[in-house]
Amino acid sequence: MALPRPSSRTRRRDANGTRIWTWLMLPGTLWMTGFLIASLILVAVLAVGTTDELGNPRFGFDLAGVRALTDPAYTEVMARSLGYALLTCVICLLIAYPVAYTIALYGGRYKHALIAAIVVPFFANYLVRMYGWSVVLSDDGPVLRALRAIGLADEGTKILNSGFGVVAGLVYGFVVFMIIPLYAALERLDVSLIEAGRDLYGGPIRTFFFVTLPATRQGAAAGLVLVFLPAMGDFVSAQLMGGPDQIMIGNLIQDKFFQGQNWPLGSALTMLLMLVLLIGMLGYLRRTRKDEAEALR
């Protein structure tokens, strides 16, 4: 039996509603887009600028800041930042998947309260949370005291001022960005698919990798992007929980703008960081379009 087609009046009402929302979104969209484009142009122009004797930026055309990006010291920092961000993504995925899976499939009537219990603490200021985390991971903090008590650490073991401390801070800061999209994907998952996998003699691990994981990979991909983008440019975690040998590109950019008075180099580093983030975002969008095309077949 064919479904009735919507009347012309209904189509006009839907079109008017869409038009109203478009006009309401237009001012904010133009505001954000204008400032984004203006900022990008300013940073790009400063990247090929110069500085005077006092370190003040001057517009011009000098590729010294761009050429400096090939310096091994800067490439090492960029590689470290990329490695920390990717490692953070992997750890966040390993932590978030069991949490989101348990809440979405077994949370019952308490699942919204459990998600709120995870999300609400992250409304606190990021800097305040990082200071608190640095206290927890300090040499006399509860984590190391507990590890020493059970014999898994000695007096010389340190978490802060190390790469482990930086990654721990990044994971703590951004793991919620992985939990939310995974939870949304798992909540939309048809549980009958998991039951069908079990009926076909698939064990829990096999069912997870061949049924659950493919069905929720878009949520995982969204979480990876949401974690990777801020983790790549973060500087608070490296500053509070890393030593001088653990700085990330965000710390380097901050130093060039505020202490080194080298705005052209800071702008060039910013453009390099944005290029890496753009590549990651384009990869995610391409993967999403490919998944949508496969779903329509």
The biggest sheet amounts to:
2 strands, antiparallel
Helix content: over 70%
Point out poorly predicted stretches: none
Q: Strand sequence of the main sheet, in spatial order?
A: 1-2
Q: Structural class per helix/strand content?
A: mainly alpha
Q: Topology, please?
A:
Blueprint: H1 8-47, E1 50-51, E2 57-58, H2 64-67, H3 72-106, H4 111-119, H5 126-136, H6 142-149, H7 163-174, H8 176-188, H9 191-199, H10 204-215, H11 217-233, H12 236-241, H13 249-258, H14 263-296
Antiparallel strand pairs: 1-2
Helix pairs in contact: 1-14, 3-7, 3-8, 3-11, 5-7, 8-11, 9-10, 11-14, 13-14
Structure description:
With 297 residues, this protein is an all-alpha fold. Helix content is 74%, strand content 1%. It has 14 helices and two strands. It has helices at 8-47, 64-67, 72-106, 111-119, 126-136, 142-149, 163-174, 176-188, 191-199, 204-215, 217-233, 236-241, 249-258, 263-296; strands spanning 50-51, 57-58.
Gist of the model:
Strand 1 and strand 2 form a beta hairpin.
Index terms:
single chain; about 300 residues; mainly alpha
